[in-house]
């Protein structure tokens, strides 16, 4: 009989407050802050400092969890989150439910922006594409192509009619969303543009890069009568009236630059909601706050600046001679008339203050509600898993709140469960945290050294922590304090193991020592209460660094893994040498002994796991376990099943008797350092470099090894639909042409299954229609038999059945679903693939001749059908245009018109250049003739 195992499923993930790779943003109310925590989205109540909701994808969608890479909030309760696989989810923040999932990007989402109304969503990605989504219709409108590197930021202009995008290719692009084309390309930056933003009144657009200055642009607006208006702060208007024709397509006009204080690159630039503040966050520890002055203030400032210049020049002129003073006065007169209204960038943007933090800032967000006592409230996310809130005042900024207790500041190095599995202890570089293992709530936080290993003693009152500097810290769990620090070793304490059925433990260190300790509760003289004390009983000297120590459950053997890639096994009582296990090519980083004492498993930096017999030290099996170092391995109590964790971010479940991989648990987004299994084996806890602690629960769902193997093969086969077999022979996509437009969606598993369901429905409906026609014929002949409808059609008519299949497909997937591959393309691919076989096989020739006759006729038929449909649509368009006053704006004709105008301009300029050259040549000849004469 085939053996069945019980499945482990992800149950909880805690310890992460905010991700490093994503941004934070306030919701529309300003009461909650949205902070991505790996694959989840935490909704934090700012005043209370509590996470009220967690928005996470449904557990039904199995597979690797993907991190949230960008988040944007709309004017309503809707929130959009972009993921590392290119998908976008729209959440209702009030309900806490996922409204829809949009698939279109092939790379991680790097920018999201709603328009003011919240009806449109623009998304940018690492695949260099911009997609515009209809949020209400839950579908993609179109894809804009033209950038040569990843999109970094997006901004809507002119009531959502235009879109400005920034990219790592050093260019800004302005897109007309009505005609779907790129109308302006703005250059000037010398390095990658990282962020852009526009003030609420849409007067200025600011862009930040690695350059030492912020660049500002004036925004031109189109009025309803077709005229255009620029907020002319510093724009120079020529004497001739050629500005309107020359700059017809120029939406952004360069205004000027302002020097930044920091030398680090710009990470984010954002205006607050009222538009009187501009924050420039750099990829360091500072945020520069600029005060934005209104038009009257900026003009006043410009006047003062001009007056100061005049005064300085007048002072200089008095010292000089009379002739020079007259010239200076003349110059003054021209400057006065020419530059009365010239406002420069420093006149509008004034550095207010610099906010400094203790660690590197990842992202910032202004609160949409302005507080009464200050200018603005600013939220910061730091790279050490921390959220800070600052109140920005005119004089200085003050920190109002910090959310830090719910997670470690750095990666989790060890996790340990108590004997009754109720408590979980995790260690990090500066703190020890005690968690409730079932709910994931943090109970205690104790300051400590760099903890590498830990141990909770029975009765859950005390715990031991081995640190990097060789100390053993005694933690009092009840009071949440560090009781005593013992200088245990001369090197870092790498491993700590309890002695079963005893009151002691063993430690292994980099100082080549294995020490045996005993603990007892004593009352020291001069102290009121009893305290736990530890004493060193025995010491065993090794000839290399000790990496791991393990004690057999019957306390008969102690196994020591050394830096020389071997494992030495000693008798516990006499400390005499028993076995040496060698075979690993790199040092052993983890090991464990089974409950019956028969097997010992070792995990190494050589990516292999070896299972040994503890009776003779023979290697039962060497398994290539992970694609990187094996960091932790442990047996499930009273079984020969075991779990392993590695730097490849995976946790694996094994059967040590059959040497088979049972399950692969995906979820962590960085190296997994440690794991702990409950006594009953009903759950596993893992700690990772991504600062998260995850719990995996055993379910009642049985599974078989064969089925799991098949599933893994299927997943490998279906891993990448874009590189599927039929697409290998299709010519690779070239770089998109300037400002190209494409379809918004992409091919996914859902679209493929939806296509299959439509084809199946059409086949069933076709068969049913034939049966109905036959029944009608029989009826007319008088052979009226009772018609039995197809049960699969659920009592629906053929047309209703097809309509039902269509309505079951989500609107976002519908476009890609209906793009069923053409028969001729499939035939071509098949011929390309099997070309050599078809030529060499004589029996295939008749098939090829038949195909030759059919193919042309069928392709022509398809072409005619498509042409007919296009003509019909064009006719409908003309009818609708004739009925209404509003004409259709044909994007293609508009684009051709723009291009023709541009080409005419180029031709005109080249002709001018040629005529100028001819004139110069004639002048040169005439001068030469004069010289000769």
Structure description:
With 933 residues, the chain is α+β, with helices and mostly antiparallel strands. The protein is built from twelve helices and 58 strands. The strands form 14 sheets. A five-stranded antiparallel beta sheet has the order 10-11-12-13-58. Helix 2 (295-319) packs antiparallel against helix 3 (322-338), helix 6 runs antiparallel to helix 7 (798-807) and helix 6 crosses helix 8.
Read across the widest sheet, the strand sequence of neighbours is 10-11-12-13-58
- Beta-strand content: 35-45%
How many beta-strand elements?
58
Residue runs with pLDDT of under 50 for 5 or more positions: 232-246, 324-339, 725-732
In short:
By secondary structure, the chain is an alpha+beta fold. Strand 39 (493-498) and strand 40 form a beta hairpin.
């Amino acid at each position: 009989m085939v053996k069945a195992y019980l499945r482990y499923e992800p149950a909880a993930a805690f310890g992460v407050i905010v991700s490093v790779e994503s941004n934070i943003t306030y919701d529309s109310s300003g009461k909650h802050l949205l902070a991505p925590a790996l694959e989840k989205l935490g909704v934090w109540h700012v005043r209370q400092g509590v996470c009220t909701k967690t928005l996470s994808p449904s557990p039904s969608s199995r597979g690797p969890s993907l991190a949230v890479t960008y988040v944007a909030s709309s004017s309503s309760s809707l929130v959009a989150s972009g993921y590392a696989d290119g998908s976008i989810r729209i959440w209702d923040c009030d309900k806490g439910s996922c409204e829809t999932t949009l698939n279109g990007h092939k790379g991680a989402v790097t920018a999201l922006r709603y328009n003011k109304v919240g009806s449109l969503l623009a998304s940018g990605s690492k695949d260099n594409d911009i997609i515009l989504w209809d949020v209400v219709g839950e579908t993609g409108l179109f894809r804009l192509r033209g950038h040569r590197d990843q999109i970094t930021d997006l901004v809507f202009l002119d009531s959502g009619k235009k879109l400005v995008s920034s990219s790592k290719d050093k260019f800004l692009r302005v897109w007309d969303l009505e005609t779907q084309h790129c109308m302006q390309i703005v250059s000037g930056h010398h390095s990658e543009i990282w962020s852009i933003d526009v003030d609420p009144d849409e007067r200025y657009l600011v862009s930040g890069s690695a350059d030492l200055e912020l660049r500002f642009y004036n925004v031109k607006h189109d009025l309803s009568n077709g005229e255009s208006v620029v907020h002319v702060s510093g724009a120079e208007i020529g004497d001739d009236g050629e500005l309107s024709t020359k700059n017809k397509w120029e939406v952004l006009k360069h205004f000027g630059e302002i020097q930044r204080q920091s030398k680090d690159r710009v990470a984010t630039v954002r205006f607050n909601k009222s538009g009187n503040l501009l924050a420039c966050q750099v990829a360091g520890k500072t945020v520069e706050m600029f005060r934005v002055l209104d038009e009257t203030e900026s003009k006043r400032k410009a006047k003062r600046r001009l007056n100061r210049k005049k005064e300085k020049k007048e002072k200089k002129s008095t010292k000089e001679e009379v002739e020079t003073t007259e010239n200076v006065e003349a110059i003054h007169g021209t400057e006065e008339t020419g530059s009365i209204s010239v406002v420069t960038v420093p006149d509008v943007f004034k550095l207010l203050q610099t906010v400094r933090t203790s660690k590197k800032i990842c992202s910032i967000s202004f609160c949409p509600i302005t507080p009464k006592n200050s200018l603005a409230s600013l939220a910061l996310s730091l790279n050490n898993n921390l959220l800070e809130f600052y109140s920005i005042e005119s004089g200085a900024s003050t920190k109002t709140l910090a959310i830090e207790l719910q997670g470690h500041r750095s990666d989790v190095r060890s996790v340990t469960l108590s004997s009754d599995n109720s408590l979980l202890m995790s260690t990090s570089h500066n703190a020890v945290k005690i968690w409730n293992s079932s709910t994931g709530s943090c109970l205690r936080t104790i300051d400590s050294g760099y903890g590498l290993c830990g141990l909770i003693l029975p009765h859950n009152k005390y715990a031991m922590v081995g640190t990097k500097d060789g100390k053993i810290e005694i933690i009092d769990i009840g009071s949440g304090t560090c009781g005593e620090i013992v200088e245990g070793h001369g090197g870092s304490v790498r491993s700590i193991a309890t002695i079963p059925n005893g009151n002691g433990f063993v430690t292994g260190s980099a100082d080549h020592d294995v020490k045996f300790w005993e603990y007892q509760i004593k009352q020291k003289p001069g102290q009121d209460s009893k305290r736990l004390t530890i004493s060193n009983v025995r010491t065993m000297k090794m000839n290399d660094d000790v990496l791991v120590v393990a004690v057999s459950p019957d306390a008969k053997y102690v196994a020591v893994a050394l830096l020389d890639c071997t494992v030495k096994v000693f008798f516990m009582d006499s400390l005499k040498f028993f076995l040496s296990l060698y075979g690993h090519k790199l040092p052993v980083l983890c090991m464990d002994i089974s409950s019956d004492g028969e097997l010992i498993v070792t995990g190494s930096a050589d990516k292999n796991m070896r299972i040994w017999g503890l009776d003779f030290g023979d290697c039962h099996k060497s398994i290539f376990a992970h694609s990187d170092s094996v960091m932790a391995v442990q047996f499930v109590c009273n079984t020969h099943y075991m779990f392993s964790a590695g730097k490849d971010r995976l946790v694996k479940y094994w059967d040590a008797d059959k040497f088979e991989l049972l399950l692969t648990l995906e979820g962590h987004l960085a190296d997994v350092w440690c794991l702990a299994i409950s006594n009953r084996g009903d759950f596993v806890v893992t700690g990772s470099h991504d600062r998260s602690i995850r719990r995996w629960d055993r379910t009642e769902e049985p599974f078989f090894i064969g089925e799991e193997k098949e599933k893994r093969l299927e997943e490998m086969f279906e891993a990448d639909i874009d590189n599927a077999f039929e697409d290998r022979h299709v010519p690779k996509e070239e770089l998109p042409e300037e400002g190209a437009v494409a379809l918004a969606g992409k091919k996914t598993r859902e679209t493929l299954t939806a296509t299959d369901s439509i084809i199946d429905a059409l086949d069933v409906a076709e068969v049913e229609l034939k049966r109905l026609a036959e029944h009608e014929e029989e009826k007319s002949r008088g052979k009226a038999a009772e018609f039995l409808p197809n049960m699969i059609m659920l009592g629906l008519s053929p047309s209703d059945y097809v309509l039902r299949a269509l309505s079951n497909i989500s609107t976002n997937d519908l476009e890609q679903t209906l793009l069923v591959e053409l028969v001729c393309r499939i035939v071509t691919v098949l011929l390309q693939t099997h070309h050599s076989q078809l030529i060499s096989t004589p029996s295939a020739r008749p098939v090829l001749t038949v195909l030759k006759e059919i193919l042309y006729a069928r392709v022509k038929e398809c072409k005619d059908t498509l042409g007919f449909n296009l003509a019909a649509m064009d006719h409908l368009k003309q009818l609708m245009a004739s009925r209404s006053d509003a004409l259709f704006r044909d994007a293609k004709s508009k684009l051709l018109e723009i291009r023709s105008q541009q080409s005419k301009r180029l031709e005109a300029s080249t002709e001018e250049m040629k005529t100028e050259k001819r004139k110069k040549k004639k002048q040169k000849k005439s001068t030469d003739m004069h010289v000769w004469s």
